[in-house]
Write a structure and sequence with these properties.
Length: 218
């Protein structure tokens, strides 16, 4: 099935150009022009990646990113805001990439392909040993039997998958899963990692990285 990409861009001409490039390589597209419409489209499900402008009406891109981060959908910011602060802010909020307008269509397509592949969205499901993860449905199975994960455990698992083979600190996990406003102890991450290992039998896959944090090894 073709991947479905949400284009969140209030300039209709730019939105149509982006759509034209995506359709040429057989992506399905959904176009919306403000943050509230984008939120509704994402909550409706079936979106594999979001192309998100920052300066959009009703709910700006950064605020929208805060709302949708727990859903585990890859996001690429497309924006005219090219200062370092905005780029760092976008990436800290959980975006997978940040492109500054104007950009070439071929570069956009390459970035999309890279993000989808890195995030595991190239397939309808993600398989790790006997574990199968269905991101859109938020379902996990072990040896074809459903495994009950808490919302935070599922979000943490998606972050591990999204950053496969990369070591992330406990602070990064807190930021990506619990949010920038979370003031709890980093031991929360340790407890959730321990639970994921036990429930999914991933003791040999989720590695502890000394003095850093954790890494999911492929």
């Amino acid at each position: 099935m073709d991947k479905r990409i949400l284009i969140v861009e209030d300039d209709m001409n730019i939105s149509n150009i982006i759509k034209m490039n995506l359709v040429l390589v057989h992506y399905e597209t959904v176009q919306v022009y403000d943050g509230i419409a984008a939120l509704e489209a994402i909550e409706g499900g079936g979106i594999d990646l979001v192309l998100l402008d920052v300066m959009i009406p009703k709910l700006d891109g950064f605020a929208l990113m805060e709302r949708i981060r727990p859903k585990g959908i890859p996001v690429i910011f497309l924006t005219a805001k090219n200062n370092v602060f905005d780029k760092v802010n976008g990436l800290k909020l959980g975006a997978d990439d940040y492109m500054v307008k104007p950009f070439e269509g071929i570069e956009l397509l390459a970035r999309i392909e890279t993000v989808l592949r890195r995030y595991g969205k190239g397939d309808a499901e993600i398989t790790i040993d006997g574990v199968r993860v269905y991101p859109n449905k938020r379902i996990v199975t072990l040896q074809d039997k459903p495994v009950e994960l808490t919302p935070k455990e599922f979000d943490l698992l998606l972050v591990l998958i999204k950053n496969k083979n990369l070591a992330l600190s406990r602070e990064q996990f807190l930021d990506k899963v619990w949010g920038m406003d979370y003031y709890g102890d980093t031991r929360t991450v340790d407890m959730h990692i321990k639970s994921l290992r036990k429930k999914l039998g991933l003791q040999d896959r989720i590695k502890t990285v000394f003095k850093i944090g954790y890494r999911l090894e492929d």
